[in-house]
Amino acid sequence: MVRTKSTRPAAVKKKTAAKPVRRTTQRKVKKKPQRQMPPWLRYVIAAVVAFLFLAAFYYFFIRPYSYRWKPCYGFKAYGVCMPSGFGVHGIDVSHHQGVIDWRMLAQTRQGKFPIRFVFMKASEGGDYGDKVFQANFDSARTHGFIRGAYHFYNPKTDPIRQADFFINSVRLDSGDLPPVLDIEKRGNDENQLRRDLKRWLDKIEQHYKVKPILYTSYKFKTRYLNDSVFNSYPYWIAHYYVDSVEYKGEWKFWQHTDVGTLPGIRGKVDLNIFNGSLEELQWMTLKK
To answer: Is the keyword Hydrolase assigned to this protein (predicted)?
Structure first.
């Protein structure tokens, strides 16, 4: 067999044209010089920040207690400047005051600011009784003080259970002041708190046959309990380091300081005044 030369044309290599090389010319971008804060502006900002810090510190930590360092233009007694225009003074105590020398405390009745009444903590929540209440309560009567008992309210505990616990802890006699509800904690629900407080007050009034005294701070009263329902109860206001009571409504007692010092009591004690005469205070007491 005769081989013939293939007539198939040989593969032709395609010539690819070389891509032109782009020459990129990088432009040098001139960086703008950063503007620096003038030194005087830094000082101004620092001064403003320092001023705001000092103002906040004074408002929250110094101002509420500045009354302690004010000059006393009236009469000073028991380590504090006494409110002017009031003649009936008292204290409130608990186990925090330790053992009280009631004989020495009774000697204050011979001074310019005689202590006439004493409120004592009796109970807290639904199961805590103040360990020195009964001894203090008995001693106050023995040494001639007008006495009263208070309950520290716990918003997390059933109000009827708390009322029953106070009733079981405190026997009030003729000549004693009405029972006191001490409310300082709001709890999680304001409306529920008001309903529960009213249940406690109603239960106590039903048992002792007298309207209880409502104790709370000026701010707490105006924020949460400033309505006709709670305004009907005798109000014991806690408002420290002020020259006069700022509360516009009626009030019976004013706890004006927590740093009083008295003979017979170690450490600091709360001082109170009654908004009226001694005869009016005696008229408030229970009658049997």
So the answer is: yes
